[in-house]
Amino acid sequence: MADALCGPSNALQNFQKHTSVDRTLQQDRLTHRHSPPQGFRSSPGPNAGILDPEFDAFQAGHAGPPQPDFHHLPPHLTQHPPPPQFVQAPQGPDWAADFQRLNISPLHPSAPIQHSHAPQASNAASWHQDFMKQQVPAAQAPTYQQNMFGSMSGHGMGGFAGPAFQQSHFGPMDSNTVSEVAQGKQQAQEGALQFDDAAFEAAFKQAQKDMLEAEVSNMREAGNAAQERAADSVPAETDPILLRIKEKRPNVYLAIKLRSEIDLGRPSDALPYLDALETLERSGSLIDDASEAKWCVDALQKIVNRDAPQVIKTRAESLITAINERLMSAYPLLASRVPVTQESIWEDLEAAGYTTRTPLPERVAQQPQQEKKEEQPVKNDDDEMAETAGKLLERVADNTSEKFQKSQFLELMRRLRDREVRVEGDKVVEVNSAQPSTFPLQPAGVPEIDRNILNVASQDFGTVMDSEVGHASDPTKTEPRTDEVSDQFNYYNINSKYHR
Amino acid sequence: MLEFRTQGYNGYSVKYSPFFDSRIAVAASANFGLVGNGRVYILGLTPNGIVAEKWFDTQDSLYDTTWSESHENQLLVASGDGSVKLFDITLSQFPIQSWKEHAREVFSVHWNLVSKDTFLSSSWDGTIKIWNPTTNDSLITLPTHSCTYSAEFSPHSPSILSSVSSDSHLRIFDLRTPASASNHLTMNIPIHTPPKPRMGAAAPVGIPPSEALTHDWNKYRDTIIATAGVDRVIRTFDIRAPAAGPIAVLPGHEYAVRRITWSPHLSDVLLSASYDMTCRVWTDGSAMGAGGVKQENMVQQDPMVLGGGNEMGKMVRHTEFVTGVDWCLFGAEGWCASTGWDERVLVWDCRAIMQ
Q1: Parallel, antiparallel, or unpaired: how do β-strands B279-283 and B2-5 relate?
Q2: What value of ipTM does the predicted structure carry?
Q3: How does pLDDT run across B110-129, given as a tens digit for each residue?
Q4: Is the residue at B291 inside a domain?
Q5: Which domain holds residue A323?
Q6: Which ranges form a coiled coil (chain A) (predicted)?
Q7: DSSP state of B243
Q8: Which end of chain A is more exposed for a tag (fewer CB within 10 A), N or C?
Q9: Contacts B145 to A, Cβ<8 Å
Q10: Is A433 buried (19+), middle (13-18) or exposed (0-12) by CB count in 10 A?
Q11: C-alpha A308: how far from chain center
């Protein structure tokens, strides 16, 4: 009982509940709404989709009296006054046909109603089979007819459910048969026509595609040539990291260089990169990758917002417009999903050892996986602890007071979340040393690396480049300029593979 | 302001001795009570500051303590392993009695203030148990069906007790009623009920239920109980009108309120300790003259405030969550002690922080 109520599998979990209002009750109500009662149609079955339109038609067509008073039919009620039965009798076949058309009964191989759907499924090939099947009830029709009109009043529900069920189209049987056969033929012809059309379409499309491909490859070549030209026009790169980026993503490289030159206050050095970008834009190869183009636009926007020389500003502005125009026309709205994923660029940058930002959501997703691999046996408790600690920290994340920043408890939560410490038995131990330590855990000799330093530095740059995060392109907000020069050293991620 | 450091242990509860004005008990736990040992300190207030006269270590975290009302050297502790232990400070090391019936962490213990022969404990296992220190088993078990963070005997009656729990309800048990299907439960007041609409004020909006962490009986008005918890608001209820909702609402704390206690000297003054690392002194507006002016002007600062109460002062010296606070029963009114996760016990005069 209490486990369900209080239910912390660790002590922290319960404490965490204190930090905010519990909304589980409201959420409960919401989730319950998502389970609609499954009514009589317990399993959709093969008829599921078919049934609905038929039922609609049934309702629309026979809004009047499709109900032949079921309770008149049971045998023990046949002593009732006959007039209603006589009135109803002629309607019987009609109703029965409708009833059968509803497909409520499991699909019966000999039930002719199947054939109204069969032509759609197996187009022309089976129309003659349809015709064959159609003949069977037609031949038997007379007996049923007699059965119907002769002993209708004596028939109970059982009669309807049994053989009478087969009596599909009593009254209009003949005409119906004919028309269906005719339809079958017609459909066969249509099928043949469609085939021709399709072949033509396909051939036409192929031809068009070939032409387009040729055109595109031409453009590619031109673009590559332009890229090479553009790359040639800029000064040679000496930094091995940037060199790698240059090879892989020339556009991104140009944008980065452009921005850093302007940040360093050397607009004259920045001009070649701007020239190169403009060349690439004109050749159209800048927007080969929409993500890269977006990146360039963001970087340029930043330059415009900064106090760069007026010449560069205007050029950057016009370049932005040009890129955007080209982007929008190359990737029309709704026509195709624009593949703007800057994450891959960041990944590439990081792989190259050049990083300006740690993509936080990714890190959150990746970290548990890595941890799981490392320490399987004690995983569960630690994971929960870390998760709970993380949630708790989120709750107080907006509190900027000095006390909360310095709080040892919150620091412990941080370390729990980041897996620097974990709970083992009744001790809090460091993950690496596995030495029991009483909190506060004092750094032994070497001062600890503050892992937040990189975050802070990268956030500064991250907001600059990543305008998707929001308000980064807000021109009213001027960024702190104190670290303008040291900014370039923030690019280096000392944790990256390159430095190991 | 006097200070004592409970090195290595984070305070959870502090209680003044009802027999000596210079003795304080502090229940504390290692590692913020997450895992590890517990320790109960017996502190003496001396001219040279606070000294630890004695301490007892326990295997599991300690969450609450209370002094025996019948024996000046004995005190109870509530332990994380589900046990309640009785220590005698004249003995050296071990508890003189340990009762283990609760299935989960015991979160509060309280001695009967009138008959003085029983005490109670409440636990996360969803029960309140009543004990006699001379017997080995509990006398009565009262189910609450939710984590019961706080339970207390009424200071006015030997057979009435109350509890608040994570289901946001204040329960009143009367042990004189027959032990029928209701298990002595006589009243079950939803704490989150909004106050009744008033003239000249917008109708109060509904508030979602939230865990109630603490409550206390008023020492002078025998039907008034104050509650507080996760929703950061202190409320007072009159158990004569349980359906009327709170009669006073005191917002102000920025995080959950962990402990509240009424003054033993003044009928309208409350002291609270909170996860926002502050202790605050409040008046609930029931005293003559208090809070009346503002209502006449019809300009209340905060529309949440009800009953004319207000915050009178704030003590911000703690640097971690404050978890325990208690008034000194002796001497000049206003002296109190507080403890928190910053491993400190502070003894201070709350008149100094009032505006």
Answers
A1: unpaired
A2: 0.82
A3: 999 999 999 999 999 999 99
A4: no
A5: 238-332
A6: 202-229
A7: G
A8: C
A9: 1, 5
A10: exposed
A11: 41
